[in-house]
Amino acid sequence: MDSSRFTDAGSEEFRVVSEKVLAMCEQEKATSQRWYHVGAPEYRRRREAGLTNWPAKKVLPQAYNVEIPSRDPHRSITVRVLRPPSTAQPKGIYIHIHGGGWVLGSADAHDGLLLDIATATGFLVATVEYRLAPEHASPAAEHDCFDAAVYMASESALAVFEVDQDAQRNLFVGGESAGGHLAALTALHLRDTGKPDVLKGAVLTYGVFDLSFTPSVRACKVPLVLEYTDMLKFRQAYLPDKSTDDEFKHPQISPLYADLKNLPPALFQCGTRDLLLDDTLFMHARWLAAGNRAKIDIVSGGFHGYATSSLPVQGPLYVGTVADFIKEHTAAR
After folding, report:
1. Which residues is 176 bridged to in the sheet?
2. What pLDDT shows up at residue 312?
3. How much is the average pLDDT of 154-181?
4. Using one digit for the tens of pLDDT, what is the confidence trace for 300-323?
5. What region does 125 belong to: left with phi over 0, alpha with psi -120 to 50, or beta?
6. Distance (Å, whole) CA 84 – CA 87
7. Which of 47, 61, 88, 310 is the most exposed place for a label (fewest CB within 10 A)?
């Protein structure tokens, strides 16, 4: 790992956007407009309507939703699909899990970014609309992601998603922030339920891997997208019945403490100004120590959400890094 990457200087683009994002976050905090001030449902409504400091999401017409079965007999799970522009069969399937602290976000929040990944890889991208806290606390989100991944690996998915078995054999999972956490738990679930070879890779971008919180999280007092107070609020919503470090460190909650043997190759990415930097560094080291293959990309000056927020920077570079990793681990048709 190149130590020169561990600088907050970054590019001029990062500096300008970071200052803008920090000002937006400080204003939200000063005027008590964070999600935990106004309530999660109201904050989601405001974001959906473009009434917060954050730009409204841009939904693409070519994306469409599919309903797949869940473990609950009378409830389905929505999966949003973006296909590569080519008319050829997709080369594989990328299961994407959005971020948002298990409280915010939606499957249609990153249509543009996910279409770029679909285009760059030739993969079908399927992003999971999992249930959100506090209305649906853990393990609701995990169960939805587990069920979606198991279904995507099943024969039933071939007709529903219009893919062939060659595409299904190239199955990847990935996500950002809380989505990175859920993606790591999904990889563990597939391994532990007798499907260790289903996944060809995992893309874990500025993920939360220790819910007892790493030193970089606990030390962060600057509200550049996230600070320690925000993490406490998100955790409380997601895990309302947990209160001790021993509970937060349970391997089914914090993948950093799980047995990580026999997992697929992983790509870890994080910025140097992200409070979750230690999560990425520690998880990458443990993934390798368990005998798995792993890459790490540390982005100088990168803040939390640098690639996937509604004010993205380095989007093309991020997509390129993800696409290169997926292509490297894709089996030939």
Report:
1. 205
2. 56
3. 97
4. 888 999 888 655 566 678 899 999
5. beta
6. 8
7. 61
Are the C-beta atoms of 76 and 129 separated by less than 8 Å? no
User: pLDDT tens across 88-105, in order?
Assistant: 899 999 999 999 999 999
Q: CA separation (Å) from 269 to 89, 207, 303?
A: 29, 8, 11
pTM above 0.90, yes or no: yes
Tens-place pLDDT, residues 240-249: 999 999 999 9
What string of DSSP letters covers 163-214? --HHHHTSEEEEEETHHHHHHHHHHHHHHHTT-TTSEEEEEEES----TT--
Greatest CA span in the chain, whole angstroms?
A: 55
Q: From the CB of residue 233, how many other CB atoms can be counted at a distance below 10 Å?
A: 17
Convert 115-145 to b/e letters by CB count within 10 Å (16 or more is b). Answer: bbbbbbbbbbbbbbbbbbbbeebbbbbbbbb
What does the alpha-carbon distance between residue 286 and residue 290 come to, in Å, rounded to a whole number?
Answer: 6
